[in-house]
């Protein structure tokens, strides 16, 4: 009998777990949303992850349940645990990646550095927060946002009336999250893995470059991050992981403020775009590490394999045809670039693949990664 | 439509093509010998590769046919080509990996360095060869041998009478291959890839350590192989690949003789155990390169990623239980070792996995790889 890991969700994160599972002889099974998903090769079941009976039937075929995304309802997760299913990360940790207000509250309790924030239930409360924070604030829907969706920078209390209306109609009800608009010089991400028995491993902190709210590029390690900055980022992520009892890989997105503080922006409780460089760039990739962690196996070394790694997302893909059509040009010009193709149809703005290049000179590495990715985009 | 590569044979070589295919978005399909094979995840059909109709039905589902092993009969391969199927490597190249007498004959025609050899049809001819070569010779069955099977060192003409008898009963008939017993200091392997349009790429020559005729360990690059030795090995493999029109990855096994010549021992026309180190140790692994080559895509860079890589096979596995049972001990003691588990049941002498370690100090790297592999064997 081989050990079986079940992944809920069939996107590219589940897909990128497949190579790690194949290497380690782990039987990876995926509950996919539909046929033909990115992780379709490992899909053992197709069904709705919001339906308890579907998820339970899937869980009964595996040793441990983990996730491609954070959208499985708490009610489903808690009932699975009640039935004796091993769920990693568990619902009591995952809630902090599902609900940004819960996340802010818990991080505050743990004494971790976050932007000023409030839960606001109406335009009047929002107006008060804006007034107290220099006439500008960031409003976020607490649930369901990703890649910049569900985030607005506002200066007036009525700019999110549509969200207040939606909240009023939502059975969950509740509030919107409002945060101070932090003046930052750049965004960083600190990847961390924790296994149930307590071991924690961190990778070097990376710089993430966003365009239109979507991660465009990751530089590992973050330039000018030696010494204290790297230590502070690693310490923050370790305290988050231990404080909320994460099992598996977690990405902590950080703002580096103009006054050189690190503030926690978001948490992702699964392998994350900011860690894709680790497939080639680290002795243990985030995907292998996630499998080790959810199986409570000793974690692998996170040593970087190159002085610099740069990962560039392929967003959208070619206007006509497929990524594959561009392989002859890309491979001929860039024989050292590692191209990852998620097997998804090209669509504007969609993450359909990424390119990683490693080496000793950051300018060269970044040029090569960007130039390769550009061949796949019109 | 994604590009589809069909692999005949479901062993660990087909299995190790899966991660490369997933990364590149290639739809890999395997014609497996049985259910539950090592490459079972990608098995789209189960059947007998010696049966033409089975292989044709499989071929009709893919863009190109390639191989996990060299055992598909020439008659099947030639009929596939006649029907318009793209087969890489093609039968006219593959024959030289299938029949060692054909191989010796062709390499001789190409002027490549091989041991003295003859095709012998009876003990009398064998006796003459032995007498001419210092009273000792190596006899090989021309077809079907692997991992030391079908190879005997003999001093007397009657030591292979069973093979002569079997030949007489074999419809293919023919002769045994006899070779001089080459005095060599070590065995090397030179991996090369060639695409149909002609591009060739070589990895650094490696040293292979055999035990009981089976590859036990590979050191990449071969110690003391800088300069001329590496150039000669690369040149030999390139001339073989071009001379016989290989498409895909080929391993050329070499003897380094006591008088410092390199002689060709065997050819393997597929990814090969001597190239497993390249999964972590090279910018492009032999598995990714094989996919690029059979799809006639530009080949990837073969730059080593570490000063030294050592690959140690896990032979047999634990006497009780599975490789997985040993993960806690192995991972805790060796967090930098990369463990590959082929998902095969442990059995004495069977290749069930391998371990690769890379780094700057060969002694450390070899120690770590051997110590990790030892945890998986009783």
UniProtKB/TrEMBL annotation, chains A, B:
It catalyses: 5-amino-1-(5-phospho-beta-D-ribosyl)imidazole + hydrogencarbonate + ATP = 5-carboxyamino-1-(5-phospho-D-ribosyl)imidazole + ADP + phosphate + 2 H(+). One of its GO terms (cellular component) is cytosol. It is an enzyme of class 6 (ligase). Keywords: ATP-binding, Ligase, Nucleotide-binding, Purine biosynthesis. The keyword Ligase applies. HAMAP family: PurK (MF_01928). This is N5-carboxyaminoimidazole ribonucleotide synthase. It comes from Cryobacterium zhongshanensis. The lineage of its organism: Bacteria, Bacillati, Actinomycetota, Actinomycetes, Micrococcales. The gene is purK.
